[in-house]
Amino acid sequence: MLALPCYACRHLGDTMPEVKSIFREVLPKQGQLSMEDVPTMVLCKPKLLPLKSVTLEKLEKMHMEAQEAVKQQELAMKEQPQ
Amino acid sequence: MEVTMDPLFLAWSYLRRRKLQQCSDICSKILQDSPYDQAAWSLKTRALTEMVYVDEVEVDQEGIAEMMLDESSIAQVARPGTSLRLPGTSQGGGPTPAVRPMTQSGRPITGFVRPNTQSGRPGTMEQAIKTPRTASTARPVTSASGRFIRLGTASMLTNPDGPFINLSRLNLAKYSKKPNMSRTLFEFIFHHENDVKNALDLAAQATEHAQFKDWWWKVQLGKCYYRLGLYREAEKQFRSALNHQEVVDTFLYLAKVYQRLDQPITALNLFKQGLDHFPGEVTLLTGIARIHEEMNNISSATEYYKDVLKQDNTHVEAIACIGSNHFYTDQPEIALRFYRRLLQMGVYNCQLYNNLGLCCFYAQQYDMTLSSFERALTLANNDEEQADVWYNIGHVGVGIGDLTLAYQCFKLALAFNNDHAEAYNNLAVLELRKGRIEQSKAFLQTAASLAPHMYEPHFNLSILSEKIGDLQSSYTAAQKSEDAFPEHVDTQQLLKQLRQHFAVL
């Protein structure tokens, strides 16, 4: 475990020299700083939704309407014999 | 005394005001009184055509049969940069899958969707059959049995007196000689009845009557051939039409043929040739940009979209594509400006508010984020859109560290769309944080089977398996991840580690 230099304390020390900091600055003079790169799970990215072209919207609308019309027709056909 | 307007004039006026049903009703009345009134007949065909008219340049639906049993391809494996069918060959240095999500077919998602970009071209038969089940719209078996037939039959069903024109009894030879009626009749047969064979007959006879000098009929013949899948014949007709008269539409149709034949470079040259005759034509510039985008060359696509905006600064497609490109190249605040521009122009739908919400969040405008998403939710038309919005709100939850919110959002996304692979993957990551390994693994496996083109579930599964000591499954999952995203550094490192392990054993 590495102790990081406390920037906040040093800053305080600059402006108010008479106050003695209770934290001691630790700067490693020897040895290597190393960090292990552990692979972590990845999230899927946020998805911008593509806008629809006018043609596509019209096609989809027409398709919905056509399906509705067929459904209505079938319902009417079913009701007729009764 | 009430003065009545001449019914034919009234019908004509209705047509111009796009009150098509009223126009058609009046024409029917006129035709009941005098069945041989050609003007009323022609007007009615026009009204009925207008009701179902869609721009033929935009319409393009490829069925499974056309895709898999393709006779026009020359080589099985095309050279890089010459084919639209190899989504992996990126030369433009666009964003990698690590930052930009993929569509079902393994292309980076774009800012705009048209009928022919809906699902791209899957690589294998298995994928082709599987895709419709997970996509929001089903892919038809062939394009001939697609949407058009269904629309055509529906239009016949809704008419209680049977079809307006009985095509089998129509004397096409007679009509082809009347230039003032043949054109409206052709459009009626082609667009309203979707009877391409009869339309082709009529066009062939009419072009003969015009002594092969009329470019309009040649273009129509080309359209029919295209619908029938005879691309080389269509190409001939369009080329011949261009010799008579250069029209922007013909360039677009011809380029469409080349795109279907998988010759993007020819299509690009054609567009450039068109631009020589029609400098600054927006549709041609858009065509070029689309091809670059489909070939994964995002940066030059963006250049062309910028050219489009110089000519027409309200072009929705260009604004949306540039916006999404900025978002995925880490400039959400610029993307936000583009989407805001769309909002100012009056685009008002679920997708736009969702994008605005995401851009606001990543551009640190937190006050607008949730209200945009709320709007998006209220404007959503179907469950798939709802699911996508909840999925993105989940990301906001992850971003602010509210993992409970994120968890609930991803769950909601799954409640609306049970095939949402991304939500499964993210849920798995959250489950693992809670220490529920089995649950996490199950979610990852579901995600991997739903979306084999994404690398994330494979990679996560690989890490998870490695942690619990199942090195063999870890290795297979890592290999799948490498297939989906070969440049991913973490996957490569993991594979290297695993190979070392196996070597030691």
From TrEMBL, chain A:
- Which BP terms in the Gene Ontology apply to this protein? cilium assembly; receptor localization to non-motile cilium
Source superkingdom: Eukaryota
Q: What InterPro entries does this protein's entry cite? A: BBIP10
One GO term of the cellular component aspect?
A: BBSome
Q: Which Pfam families match?
A: BBIP10
Q: Which PANTHER family match?
A: BBSOME-INTERACTING PROTEIN 1
- Protein name per the record: Putative BBSome-interacting protein 1-like isoform 6
From TrEMBL, chain B:
TPR repeat locations: 350-383, 387-420
Q: Gene3D superfamilies in the record, alphabetically? A: Tetratricopeptide repeat domain
Bias type Polar residues, positions: 133-142
Q: Which InterPro entries match?
A: BBS8, TPR-like_helical_dom_sf, TPR_rpt
Kindly state one GO CC term assigned in the UniProt record: non-motile cilium
Biological process, per Gene Ontology: non-motile cilium assembly
Q: Which SUPFAM superfamilies match?
A: TPR-like (SSF48452)
Coiled-coil stretches: none
Q: Name one Pfam family in it.
A: TPR_8
Keywords, alphabetical = TPR repeat
Annotated stretches, region: Disordered: 84-142
Q: Give yes or no: UniProt keyword Protein biosynthesis.
A: no
Carries keyword Cell membrane? no
Query: Superkingdom of the source?
Result: Eukaryota
Q: Which PANTHER family match?
A: TETRATRICOPEPTIDE REPEAT PROTEIN 8
Q: What is this protein called?
A: Uncharacterized protein
The organism is Scophthalmus maximus (Turbot)
